[in-house]
Amino acid sequence: MLRKHIGIMGEISWRASQGLYNGYQPYRPIFWDFNGMYLRSLTRRISAELSAGIGAESTRFYSNFYNCNYFNGCTNYATSTHFMGQFGAGLRLYAKGGFFIRPEVHYYLVNNNVEYTSSRVFRFGGSIGYTFGEH
Predict the structure, then answer these.
(1) Region of 16 on the Ramachandran plot (φ > 0 left; ψ -120 to 50 alpha; else beta)
(2) Which of 81, 104, 132, 135 has its CA nearest to residue 35?
(3) Nearest-CA neighbor of 10 among 42, 56, 45, 41?
(4) What value does the mean pLDDT take over residues 54-64?
(5) What CATH code is carried by the domain that includes residue 105?
(6) What DSSP string describes 44-56?
(7) Residue 77 falls within a domain, yes or no?
(8) pLDDT digit string (tens) for 31-43?
(9) What residue numbers bound the domain in which 105 lies?
(10) Within a domain: residue 69?
(11) Model-level pTM?
(12) CA-to-CA distance for 110 and 81, rounded, in angstroms?
């Protein structure tokens, strides 16, 4: 936190298992971004969190063949990366002390996302964290 309610953050999120693109192509999206955030206490144990920032969406498309070269070693995927904007919201539910559980939603606007039918991506999730100092 830079000030009482305003801070900065960075995050990386990815799909835990490979999905099937168009029913045949294994893939895994990875989102990473740097954000400004606004955090406001609603009650003693609940805080609202809003974020907005920029980053990139990187999608790995997997194959059964390995691409090997001297500099990078061997990989079995091709990567497509695009610039994106991010907007997010979450609720920090403090369980004990600084420990919290956070249900969250993120909205990504991916530039030139030609691999998919839309440039808009929603991600719903949850995280566990700890706040140092006052919350």
Answers:
(1) alpha
(2) 104
(3) 56
(4) 91
(5) 2.40.160
(6) SSEEEEEEEEEEE
(7) yes
(8) 999 999 999 999 9
(9) 6-130
(10) yes
(11) 0.81
(12) 10
Total structural domains within the chain: 1
Cα–Cα distances in angstroms (integers) from residue 78 to residues 27, 54, 59, 81, 107, in the given order? 9, 23, 8, 10, 25
The mean pLDDT value for 2-21 works out to 89
Residue 83: CB atoms within 10 A of its CB come to: 13
Per the domain annotation, does 135 fall within a domain?
no
Tokens 């063949």: give the residue. Answer: 65
DSSP-derived secondary structure letter, 89: E
Using the structure block, give the residue that is written with the tokens 């606007």: 109
Burial environment of residue 88 by CB neighbours within 10 A (0 to 12, 13 to 18, 19 or more): buried
Tokens of 46: 């609940």
